[in-house]
Design goal:
The complex is a heterodimer of chains A (about 350) and B (about 140). Chain A is of the alpha+beta class and about 350 residues long. Helices cover about 30% and strands about 25% of the residues of chain A. Chain A has nine helices and 18 strands. The longest helix of chain A is centred in the middle third of the chain and has 20 residues. By secondary structure, chain B is of the alpha+beta class. Chain B has a domain of about 40 residues. In chain B, strands 2-3 form a two-stranded antiparallel sheet. Classes of the chains: A alpha+beta (about 350), B alpha+beta (about 140). At the A-B interface, strand 3, strand 4, helix 3, strand 5 and strand 7 of A face strand 1, strand 3 and strand 4 of B. Strand 10 of chain A pairs antiparallel with strand 1 of chain B, so a sheet runs across the interface.
């Protein structure tokens, strides 16, 4: 059930609504409370459209039709083509660290149905912050794991896209999974649509991936960065303000499940097809858009320590947390006034 | 067989072998040249139909492969930083003056006898709780 709240009696212009969507939580905040109803309608329309195009769990989605037609050209909607282009751009810009063709690998890792239906490790369902698992706990012994099959299913360089009318052909043997970038794209599109229609400043958060458009709340949009988007705003982390653009957080501490007795998470290393060995547990990046922020934060988890130099070179303000809890800030990410600096 | 005829036959066979070698080499070179010419003449590119054309294709329906085009990496723009880096903020939220706030009662009802009251502190507006960004 949606939760509607005017933020405070003296700030009647700002309104916020939260509701479950896309298997996670959507948050909509506008600087003009009178625009909230229209804004919600617009966001719902964007979410329905992206779900219909890119869901892995709907047999009638375009994604599933494309996956079922591997090896053949298939006509798709402009939205699906846009989402796929975003995924391929992510792969290109990260040298494959973010790969939209890991659909087979994620299913192989056990994430084959809606997350709520998976078997969860202890404490994961309650939404509590989970102590990061060690490499052995995450992946088990790799000697018995059929890595060769997982490697075979990555093939983003072989995907073909045609424009006007939109068509897509994926190579036989691979399956698309546009989950992360598609969600971020939906946030960007929803925020832009709300601002264009209402003129209000707007923040859209989908599972903690945040897009903004229009004039921000005075002083900036407040964002609390932590491991889990379902956490309380006072959970361990850092609070910052952003004036625009997007901000995204990726973490290996959430969306974890049990498969064959092993704890798995949803951030896969395309080099192995297995969940990333956790060097960083959480990465947060601010960028000009939610898609760019999502690409960077996800790639950072896959890259490990080299991500520090990569993000710094791209001038993307980022906050990365090691599994030990050690926090690194690069490219202008502000220090936390509440924590002592080295 | 006369000796001269044998020599003539061997010489002819030698010429034939030489000609064959040149023909094979030439064929390879010409094939390479034609391949290069064809690649230059018909590169992979985005096909955009004219504005007046219409499409009756629907999502999910197989379409002819004659117009297939490889996705072009050159279309990818680099990841772009935000116009402004995030700024630190202390939780709980700081308070901020409200622009155009309602004046204080004293300021609303001034009297001629009363001294001009010092401006009351502007009411403050509590910023909304921050949105949480975390893994999902």
């Amino acid at each position: 059930m949606p939760i509607l709240a005017s933020s405070s009696p003296s700030s009647t212009d700002v309104a916020t609504v939260r509701w479950p969507a896309l298997g996670t939580t959507a948050v909509l905040r506008v600087t003009d409370a009178s625009a909230l109803a229209d804004a919600r309608t617009l966001v719902d329309a964007e979410l329905d459209a992206i779900d219909s195009a890119c869901s892995r769990f709907r047999v009638d989605s375009e994604l599933e039709r494309v996956n079922a037609s591997a090896g053949r050209f298939v006509a798709v909607s402009p939205l699906f083509a846009e989402a796929l282009r975003a995924g391929l751009r992510a792969a290109w810009l990260t040298d494959g660290a973010v790969d939209p063709t890991l659909g087979e690998a994620i299913v192989f890792a056990g994430y084959s149905r809606d997350f709520s239906e998976l078997e969860h490790p202890r404490n994961a369902r309650a939404g509590a912050t989970i102590e990061p698992a060690g490499p052995d706990q995450l992946s088990g012994s790799s000697s018995s794991y059929p890595i060769i099959r997982a490697r075979r299913v990555s093939g983003w360089r072989l995907i073909e896209i045609r424009h006007d009318p939109c068509g897509v052909r994926i190579p036989a043997g691979i399956r698309l999974d546009l989950g992360a970038t598609a969600k971020a794209l939906a946030a960007d599109r929803a925020a832009a649509a709300v601002h264009a229609a209402t003129g209000a400043g707007v923040l859209v958060s989908l599972g903690g991936d945040i897009a903004t458009a229009g004039p921000p709340y005075p002083g900036g949009w407040g964002v609390h960065v932590t491991d889990d988007h379902r956490a309380d705003p006072h959970a361990p982390g850092q609070t910052v303000t952003i004036a625009g653009g997007g901000l995204a957080t990726s973490s290996t501490t959430v969306r974890r499940w049990l498969n064959d007795g092993r704890v798995r998470h949803h951030i896969l290393d395309p080099a192995t097809g297995q969940p990333v060995q956790p060097g960083w547990r959480t990465a947060t990046t601010a960028a000009s858009s939610c898609v760019d922020a999502n690409i960077a934060s996800t790639a950072a988890l896959v890259q490990g320590t080299p991500a520090l130099a990569w993000l710094s070179g791209l001038k993307l303000p980022s906050r990365l947390v090691r599994v030990t809890g050690e926090v690194h800030r690069v490219a202008g990410w502000p220090d936390d006034p509440l924590s002592p600096q080295p | 067989m006369p000796r001269s005829s044998s020599h003539a036959r061997d010489a002819a066979l030698t010429r034939m072998r030489r000609i064959n070698r040149w023909l094979v080499a030439g064929a390879v070179i010409v094939t390479g040249l034609l391949t290069d010419v064809a690649a230059q003449a018909f590169p992979g590119r985005t096909i955009t139909r004219s504005a007046g054309s219409s499409s009756t294709t629907r999502p999910g329906r197989a379409i002819p492969a004659t117009t297939r085009v490889r996705h072009r990496p050159a279309e990818h723009r680099a990841l772009k930083p935000p116009a402004q880096a995030p700024q630190a903020q202390n939780p709980p939220q700081v308070v901020e003056p409200v622009a155009g706030a309602t004046p204080s009662p004293a300021a609303q009802t001034p009297t001629a006898a009363a001294p001009v009251a010092a401006p009351a502190p502007a009411p403050v507006q509590v910023a909304p709780a921050p949105v949480v960004s975390g893994g999902s």
